[in-house]
Design goal:
The complex is a heterodimer of chains A (321) and B (265). By secondary structure, chain A is of the alpha/beta class. Chain A has helices at 19-34, 48-54, 75-89, 100-112, 219-228, 236-240, 271-277, 306-320, and strands spanning 3-7, 37-44, 61-66, 93-97, 116-121, 123-127, 130-137, 142-148, 153-157, 173-177, 186-193, 206-210, 231-234, 261-265, 282-287, 300-303. Chain A starts with a strand and ends with a helix. The mean pLDDT of chain A is 95. Chain B has helices at residues 37-53, 68-77, 93-107, 126-134, 151-154, 204-210, 220-223, 251-260, and strands spanning 2-6, 9-11, 33-35, 56-63, 81-86, 111-115, 137-142, 161-162, 168-175, 178-185, 188-192, 215-218, 231-237, 246-247.
């Protein structure tokens, strides 16, 4: 039986990266179409706790590879370990969420497996041996249907396009394996976490983003975000100017979000930004410029100054409580 | 230091991309072309590194003779010479990485710098494939924390730091929830993220000088690389258009719509 291997990710704090659950759902859809079995792999210094969490997500087996050398993620140590596992399992497909780690690791692994790869898949088609991957190109202005003509096929998953796999779906067999360790020419130096009390952008139900129109003043955006339990995002221009941290950037080259409600305040709506938020369920645009392209994708637009609209919006929403 | 930098030819990021009615490709008419913006950031980083440590920036591009435009652009920015891999027809990431591997083996650079992704296919793969093919270390999504307005940016310091023994580079990488720093032994592969630097404009003297800089021509056959694509693009389509929204006159109406129509608050 063909095998789909999904690589789960442990965060530096030891917890499971939630996007892995979305990748598992994509893996399950792929397994159904390909008539394959779903397996999960997790690597790290001590991934046992994460493996426990993955047990009930509907896979046939969870493969746990623990080694001291895998404490800090590096493509050069993770790729050989995963390649050896994939080869041993005779995996036909290997996939992972399109996180920073997924995007760094999967192409290196694919190169090792002499496999072609599809990045950021948003859907699947075909069946049996003829699986078709759907993926965005040109900043999401084009969607391609792609076939990979190598024995092993590698992919990363755009998490926002697949629901997160829930627990309680049986208990996978947990198998430990000794990861193949190779010397690395790269060494880990440090990781500086950017901590936020607000929800993660790609997981939040509501996202409020600010653009150039904020002139760097995010106070009103943050206040509304805190009222709504929302995440704060930003356009590229705002991050480039150093007004907010880089990891708040929503766009083609930043984070791709798809919340139930996206509020764009003072954002003109460049192609770059639209690529990162167009899949949001409901979009609200607030901009002084009635001609701003953001109004072409917004469900509701208000042509006005965000510094006037946001406080009003806060007090109107307070009334509902 | 010898630095090999890629310069892919891509559609201008500001262009409106339209899919042909039969889904076989995009409409080429009226499109303008540029160097991939991430590669341009790579050229800038290469130039800063050699300004600080001496050396040479060699720029490479793969494609028909039109890619000489992008090579000339990089030469006008200050790159020293160029390598053109003359190839027309389809090419995938495996083929591109295979060709770049041969060019790197020939040029023996200390560092290969590539954009983290091309803004046309958005695959984000070639640098990592190349590092594995060469057996080198990789530092993808090279970034730096400081604002582009910072004093450091004004001094045009490279963000990729050569270690004191000059045998490795330290690179700050943009990852989920933070910044990771890695140290890669040379030779290594670095891919650039958006905020690594602000590429310089090509000056008029630079543009004049670029005309006389050498462009070496190579071919896939000459390099011994089979570039037959393994990734087959079956069909292209435009994303489903969002239905036109409405403009609301005031905040009260907006809240009413969000509550009763969209049911999101």
């Amino acid at each position: 039986m063909p095998i789909v291997l999904i690589v789960a990710e442990q965060q530096p704090d030891g917890n499971l990266r939630k996007a892995s659950l979305n990748a598992i759902t994509a893996g399950k859809q792929l397994a159904d179409k390909a008539g394959a079995e779903l397996h999960i792999a997790i690597l790290g210094k001590d991934p046992a706790k994460v493996a426990e969490e993955l047990k009930g997500t509907g896979a046939k087996a969870v493969h746990v590879g623990a080694a001291a050398e895998l404490e800090h993620y590096l493509a050069e140590t993770y790729a050989p370990a995963l390649a050896a596992l994939a080869t041993e399992l005779k995996a036909d497909f290997v996939g992972m969420a399109s996180t920073a780690q997924g995007k760094d690791l999967m192409p290196r692994l694919a190169a090792r497996l002499k496999a072609a790869m599809a990045t950021d898949i948003t859907g699947l088609g075909g069946s049996g041996a003829d699986i078709i991957f759907h993926r965005p190109m040109w900043a999401g202005n084009v969607f391609a249907e792609v076939k990979l003509n190598t024995p092993v096929k590698v992919f990363t998953v755009r998490a926002t396009e697949f629901t997160a796999a829930a627990g309680g779906q049986g208990a996978a067999e947990v198998k430990t394996f000794a990861p193949k360790i190779e010397a690395s020419k790269t060494k880990f130096v440090e990781f500086k976490e950017v901590k936020s009390a607000r929800p993660e952008l790609t997981e939040a139900r509501v996202v409020i983003s600010g653009g150039r129109g904020t002139k760097g003043d995010f106070k009103e955006i943050e206040a509304l975000a805190d009222d709504l339990g929302a995440a704060v995002g930003a356009s590229r221009a705002v991050c480039d100017a150093g007004w907010v941290p880089n990891d708040l950037q929503v766009g083609q080259t930043g984070k791709v979000v798809a919340p139930a409600l996206y509020i764009a305040a003072g954002i003109s709506g460049a192609i770059q930004h639209l690529a990162g938020m167009k899949s949001s369920k409901t979009i609200v645009a607030i901009n002084k410029d009635a001609e701003a392209p953001i109004f072409q994708v917004a469900d509701y637009g208000i042509v006005a100054d965000l510094f006037k609209v946001l406080p009003e919006l806060r007090s109107e929403l307070q009334k509902l409580k | 230091m010898k630095i090999l930098v890629t310069a892919k030819r891509v559609e201008d990021p500001e262009s409106k991309i339209k899919v042909k009615p039969d889904g076989s490709g995009i409409v080429q008419e009226g499109l303008k072309y540029k160097i991939n913006p991430f590669d341009e950031i790579g050229v800038e980083e290469g130039l800063r590194l050699v300004a600080k440590h001496q050396g040479e920036v060699v720029v490479v591009s793969i494609g028909g003779k039109e890619v000489q435009e992008q090579l000339r652009h990089a030469l006008a920015m200050g790159a020293h010479r160029a390598v053109w891999v003359n190839h027309t027809g389809p090419l995938d990431q495996l083929g591109i990485a295979g060709l770049l591997q041969k060019v790197a083996e020939k040029e023996k650079p200390d560092l290969v710098v590539l954009g983290k992704q091309s803004i046309d296919d958005d695959q984000n793969q070639v640098g990592q494939y190349l590092a594995e093919f060469l057996g080198w270390g990789q530092a993808t999504f090279a970034s730096k924390v400081e604002s582009l307005e910072s004093a450091e940016e004004k001094n045009k310091e490279p963000a990729v730091k050569l270690t004191a023994d000059k045998k490795a580079v330290q690179v700050v990488r943009e990852v989920d929830n933070g910044l990771a720093t890695v140290e890669c032994q040379l030779p290594a592969v670095v891919t650039t993220d958006l905020r690594l630097n602000q590429p310089r404009y090509a000056s008029l003297p630079g543009i004049m000088k670029a005309k006389s800089k050498p462009i070496e021509e190579l071919t896939p056959a000459g390099l011994g690389v089979d570039v037959a694509p393994k990734i087959q693009v079956l069909k292209l389509a435009s994303p489903p258009a969002r239905k036109a929204g409405i403009k609301v006159p005031d905040v009260a109406t907006l809240v009413d719509k969000l509550r009763n129509e969209a049911k999101v608050v």
